[in-house]
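Example record

The entry below shows one chain as it appears in the dataset: sequence first, then structure tokens.
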Amino acid sequence: MSGISLDQARTIIHKALESGRALQLKPLSVVVLDAGGHVQAFEREDSAAPGRFAIAHGKAYGAVMLGMAGTAQMARAEAQAYFMAAVNGVYGGQVVPVPGGVLVRDSAGAVIGAVGVTGDTSDNDAIAAMAGIEAAGLQGEI
């Protein structure tokens, strides 16, 4: 299994932020996690709230730990709130089950990490994440 290199993580972040500015989104924060849920890289734009790291991390962490992108997590939370509550208990409250937590897969379809973006609407966050992932030559799952 391949992983997300530091260069790819930096590309993801820079292109996600660039996409956010092009779309005139609010200031974004972007985190890239490896397949084990460890931070590979993080950046927070000027004027982004300082607490945004925890939200970006929670979006990405839930995606990579569950193997389920943010959109699927949100649907699961709406259908089975007890399940996501239990998951959050297991993971110490670190899971934020909304769009903007994007799974990153390699060319064989294996999960190699996740990206979490926060700062604008969850759907816009996911769009920015995908722009970064695609710029890094990887596949994303919203």
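Notes for this example: The longest helix spans residues 6-22. The longest strand covers residues 111-118.
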